[in-house]
Amino acid sequence: MNYQFRKATITEIPQIWAILQKAIKRRKEDGSNQWQDGYPNPEVIQKDIEKEAGFVLTLNEEIIGYTAVMINDEPEYANIIGQWLTNEDFVVFHRVAIDEAHLGKGLSKTILNFIEAFALSNKIYSIKADTNFDNIAMLKIFEKLGYQLCGEVYFRGSARKAFEKVLPQYS
Fold first, then answer.
1. 88: CATH
2. What digits encode the pLDDT tens for the residues 16-61?
3. CA dist 77 to 19, 70, 90, 151, 152, Å?
4. Domains in the chain: how many in total?
5. Is residue 83 part of a domain?
């Protein structure tokens, strides 16, 4: 498969939002309260893209996934209840969503692998992320890919499980 991972453009907001809307609906159908409070929304996607943090996963030019990827850009992580594995620079990602037609193919893991490559290309060896307590799919992915539970962080009044993965350093 010819997957590409690249920065999103403003003109792609409609396709990205369509993917996220279906993901929001799936979270609700799965009994999760994650993403059921008006977040994320098209304005969030636009801000991601404007600060060059919005990324798409494509297959033959078709957008099939979305995430936001930032470096050292999550103020709430300073307030962790628990302890991070490292205190160095880190890559953080939010809003991972896969197009409904491409579910079950391991594409969230594909996105996380691209994020690891992004981190290493920037000489950063820590990836931090969080998810809702009831997002079973993402919790399983974190476990499979070697993320370690570090504690809890809070967003919009709700506790989230906080994870970190330390990447091997090659000199």
1. 3.40.630.30
2. 999 999 999 998 898 888 888 888 999 999 999 999 999 999 999 9
3. 27, 13, 11, 10, 9
4. 1
5. yes
